[in-house]
Amino acid sequence: MNGQGFTVTGVSKTYGGAGEVRALDGIDLTVGEGEFVVLLGRSGCGKSTLLEIMAGLQRPTTGTVRLGGREITEPDERIGVVFQDPSLYPWRTVGRNVELGLELAGLPKGRRRAVAQEHLELVGLPDAGNKYPRQLSGGMRQRVGIARALATRPDVLLMDEPFGAVDHLTRLQLQHDLLRLWAEDTRTVVFVTHDVAEAIVLADRIVLLTPGPGRIARTWDVPRPRPRTLGDPGLTALREEIYAQLEDTGTWEKEGQPR
Ligand SMILES: Nc1ncnc2c1ncn2[C@@H]1O[C@H](COP(=O)(O)OP(=O)(O)OP(=O)(O)O)[C@@H](O)[C@H]1O
C-alpha cells in the first residue's frame, strides 16, 4: 500500500464570464488511502471540474483539497492523471511518450527507457515501445496513457472517463486490467464515469453527483469481492437502487446513457 488519502472540504466552483455557471456547490468528500472511489453522474454535473480541482489543475472558488494533509493548489508529483483522450505526442514513439514525466523529473536516459518499458509491460504492451501512437488502436493508446501516468509512480491516480472512447469489449478488458494493476500495487484511485455498470464493477465506493450546481446526492459502498459480474444478486439490487436515484433526479435513462 502506498496510497494517500484526499480530503475535499466545502469545495464550490463558479465559472466566471458572461453567463456564470455554478459547477459545484459545497462538496465534502474523503477518499481513504488505497480506496477506489468512482464519481458517477450525468454529463454536466461537475465530475470533471471536481477531478481537475483534486488534481490541482483548477482552483476551487471556495474550499480546499488536501492530499495526505498537504493542500493541493497546483499539479503535484504524487498525483497521476488519465483523461479520456490520452493526448500522446504523434511524433514521439510510444516509449518516449511514456518517458515524458520521467524526463520532467530529470531521470537519466537509460533509466527512463527501462522504467517506460517496465510500465508498458505492466499494461500489456511489451512490444509497443518503438511504435508510433498512430500504429496503435484506441484501446492500446489508452493503455499507453495509463502507463505514462503510472511511470512516475504517483500515490494517487485520478481518471476522467478514461475508457469512454473505446468499444465495449475493450472497455471491459481495460476495466479488468486496471483492477489487476490496482490489486498489485494499491494506490488511491478516483475514477469519473457516467456508466453505472462501470461504477459497480470498479468501485469500493460510488459517489453520485447531481447537477445544477453539482452536489453529492448519495454514496454507496460496494461490499462485494472482485472480480464482479453484474449477474451477482447483491449487485443487481445496488444497480436498481442507483438507477432509481438517478431517475429521481429526472435526468437518466436506463442502461447508463444520459439524455
Ligand atoms: N471552463 C469552463 N468555463 C465555463 N463553464 C464550464 C467550464 N468547464 C465546465 N463548465 C461548466 O461547468 C459544468 C460542469 O462541467 P463538467 O465538465 O465539470 O461536468 P461533467 O460532469 O464532467 O460533464 P461531462 O461528463 O460531460 O464531462 C457544466 O455546466 C459546464 O458547462
From TrEMBL:
Transmembrane segments: none annotated. Signal peptide: none annotated. Residues 6-236 form the ABC transporter domain. One of its GO terms (molecular function) is ATP binding. This is ABC transporter ATP-binding protein. The lineage of its organism: Bacteria, Bacillati, Actinomycetota, Actinomycetes, Pseudonocardiales. CDD domains: ABC_NrtD_SsuB_transporters. It comes from Prauserella endophytica. It comes from the Bacteria. Keywords: ATP-binding, Nucleotide-binding, Transport. SMART domains: AAA (SM00382). InterPro entries: AAA+_ATPase (IPR003593), ABC_transporter-like_ATP-bd (IPR003439), ABC_transporter-like_CS (IPR017871), ABC_transporter_ATP-bind (IPR050166), P-loop_NTPase (IPR027417). The keyword Transferase does not apply. SUPFAM superfamilies: P-loop containing nucleoside triphosphate hydrolases (SSF52540).
